[in-house]
UniProtKB/TrEMBL annotation:
Pathway: Isoprenoid biosynthesis; isopentenyl diphosphate biosynthesis via DXP pathway; isopentenyl diphosphate from 1-deoxy-D-xylulose 5-phosphate: step 3/6
Species this chain originates from: Thermolongibacillus altinsuensis
Role summary: Catalyzes the phosphorylation of the position 2 hydroxy group of 4-diphosphocytidyl-2C-methyl-D-erythritol.
Sequence positions that bind ATP: P90, V91, A92, A93, G94, L95, A96, G97, G98, S99, S100
UniProt GO MF annotations: 4-(cytidine 5'-diphospho)-2-C-methyl-D-erythritol kinase activity; ATP binding
Superkingdom in the source lineage: Bacteria
Domain GHMP kinase N-terminal intervals: 62-140
GO biological process, one term: terpenoid biosynthetic process
UniProt-recorded name of the protein: 4-diphosphocytidyl-2-C-methyl-D-erythritol kinase
Reaction catalysed by this enzyme: 4-CDP-2-C-methyl-D-erythritol + ATP = 4-CDP-2-C-methyl-D-erythritol 2-phosphate + ADP + H(+)
The UniProt record lists the keyword Ion transport: no
Keyword Ubl conjugation: no
Catalytic machinery residues: K6, D132
Length: 285
């Protein structure tokens, strides 16, 4: 199963809720940077995680493990499964790698165990694992509200290159939300972004992109601001941090400029990627 990363083209936080989560309004889209999940039937009643990445837990803390466990419990499955995860998405990066692994596991086990669940049902189960999992179940492009689990599909943005750069730090999403001061943030125009995407207006998408969590992470890690500056200087059409960070992405349409940004950033950053913005749901088929 393919488990692609997401970026947030717009991310607003409306208020803190009584359950500790924050009410959000965001636009998320799928990009062509994906982990690979392989599911193999086990005839012993266990869930085994195989991953050769030292940042990825191989026990019940793994979101893919939690996905399998939930399905086993809900549907009384007595078989086991070995879940092999080949990571390409950097960990704790704001790209929903773990959430996408969980979503791919849900989609895959639905087939392997012939559960016959719809994507809507899988997304509902995914919400029990994490706020970003429902979006990852569908992929594509969507407005996410609630704590992120309510999904409204919208068309794909015009295609472009996405250059990503992740400094050598991992960010805790909970920490970033905790340190957000809603009195002092500049709220992005999420409705404007949705309109721009529907109009396929690339320039407007670039000018309206915004993320309220960016200022929090920039304060904690000045290297994120440096990467933003460099990406702008090398000629990206827009530059923004994804999710709670620390990954910074830039959109660019011209191949030659994509190469300039990619090569320029590789001197500063170990993790640099240049991939296509996908934004379509059939990418997962
Ligand atoms: C910021 C975003 C933007 O897409 O992505 P990432 O940076 O993680 O990729 C998401 O809101 C992250 O979603 P996800 O990573 O699934 O979060 P969860 O596991 O549900 O929650 C982790 C913690 O973040 C905080 N949290 C999360 C979502 C939300 N709407 N409000 C919150 O306050 C809570 O403290 C929660 O305990
Ligand atoms: N399958 C997984 N892949 C990556 N990280 C995972 C996975 N399962 C659990 N985690 C844990 O979740 C944390 C957040 O990881 P990730 O989903 O990559 O980041 P983000 O929420 O910023 O997009 C990591 O620190 C890691 O310990």
């Amino acid at each position: 199963m393919k488990a692609p990363a997401k970026i947030n083209l717009s991310l607003d936080v409306l208020h803190k809720r009584s359950d500790g989560y924050h009410e959000v309004k965001m636009v998320m889209t799928t990009i062509d940077l994906a982990d690979r999940i392989e599911l193999v039937d086990l005839y012993t009643d266990t869930i085994k995680i195989v991953s050769h990445n030292r940042f990825v837990p191989d026990d019940e803390r793994n979101l893919a493990y939690q996905a399998a466990k939930l399905l086993k419990t809900k549907f009384g499955i007595k078989r086991g499964v070995a879940i092999s995860i080949t990571k390409s998405i950097p960990v704790a990066a704001g790209l929903a790698g773990g959430s996408s692994d969980a979503a791919a596991t849900l989609r895959g086990l639905n087939k392997l165990w012939r559960l016959g669940l719809s994507l809507d049902e899988l997304a509902q189960i995914g919400a029990e694992i994490g706020s970003d999992v429902p979006f990852c179940v569908y992929g594509g492009t969507a407005i996410a509200t609630g704590r992120g689990e309510k999904i409204e599909h919208i068309p794909a943005p015009p295609s472009s290159w996405v250059v990503l750069a992740k400094p050598a730090i991992g960010v805790s999403t909970a920490d970033v939300y905790r340190q957000l001061d809603l009195q002092s943030v500049k709220h992005p125009d999420v409705d404007g972004m949705v309109a721009a995407i529907k109009e396929k207006n690339y320039e407007k998408i670039c000018s309206l992109a915004g993320n309220v969590l960016e200022s929090v992470t920039l304060k904690m890690y000045p290297e994120v601001a440096q990467i933003k500056e460099q990406m702008k200087r090398f000629g990206a059409d827009m530059v923004l941090m994804s999710g709670s960070g620390p990954t910074v992405f830039g959109l660019v349409q011209h191949d030659s400029r994509m190469h300039r940004i990619y090569n320029g950033l590789r001197g500063f950053c170990d993790h640099v990627y240049a991939v296509r913005l996908i934004g379509e749901r059939h990418f997962l088929d």
